[in-house]
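Hello Y.,

Per our agreement to keep a running log of every chain we model this quarter, I'm adding this entry. I've kept the format consistent with earlier entries: sequence first, then predicted structure.
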Amino acid sequence: MAAVLLGAGTRLLHVGPHKTGSTAVQGAFHLARERLAAEGVFYPGQGRQPLWPVLAVTSQPALLGEPSPKIGYWDRLVAGIRAAGDQRVVLSSEFFAEADDATARRVVGDLGGDRVHVVVTLRSLTRILPSQWQQYLQNGFSFRYHEWLEGILSEPPRTPTPGFWRRHRHDALVARWAAAAGPDRLTVIVVDESDRLMLLRVFESMLGLPGGFLVPEERAANRSLTTAEAELVRLLNEEFSRREWPDRSYARFMRYGAVEHMKNARQPSPGEPRITTPSWALDRAAAISAEMARNIEALGVRVVGDLSALGRRPADARPAADAGPAPLVPVEAAVQAALGGFLAGGAGGQAAEEIVRDLDARSLARVLAKRCRQRMLRSLPR
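Predicted structure for the entry above:
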């Protein structure tokens, strides 16, 4: 089914969920913000997504070690969107996927009721699982991948991350937002794994933009950790927990220090082992995705892309090795992680900067790192 062209004054609300191309979409809109304005499209905020306002309205805690979001952030965002008048508005955040029924209704109402058109982007669970586990690692968790899979895919699930199924029970997610906005005002886009620009082209079509208007923001790419890098992060997380260091130190030294620097400063060699999902988990995830696809089809919402593709096991899946010795961490990766911690703590001696509330995660990382320099010796946890 083709994408629908949205009328003037429409509020396009992209609710994710996580790991379905949201970062690429947000990076492209952020990069094109000024050009979009000339086309009558408003992309609110200053960063790639208005993270803190969305966390506030959905009553979610901030990431480990960061300040609690306040509902005033959401109120200010809504006021700016209302002032956009008959411009088309695009609001994108995967954190909307955490909203419950009442919050989804509130968000739609605050943004203009029947002016709102919800977009849900979907990938198969088989693609989402390793990426989502890595994201949990980068928020302080320390469970192993195979252990987490056994819990998340059991019936009923046994997991320290119950939010996974709030995000990724995709049929329930679509039904929730269809009930809030109306099924005729919801579009599901199934990601085409063979076409990295497919999502951007669909958004262009919905907004009446010329083909090729949205381009990827390459520096916003969020590369995956290798097996060894993930184990390094996991073991450091264990140490943080064991030593009972304060949460604020995790945000400073790990998320925006060791992990961020390691990911940005090095490119893994082609031979470094990547995280792989065992066959039993791929089969179970594909079966759940197929069930969810059938349920979504029955909802009568508009679907762009091949919904049945969600239930297929990926053809390029590599067999996961049996659990064995911990992988060897390349010296380069360990050095870059250590350097990231040093820089985040102040070893560079740079001046502090004020945090801008509406920054996206990556910009916030840079600001926090600069702010924390000069304070390492007196603030390192003991």
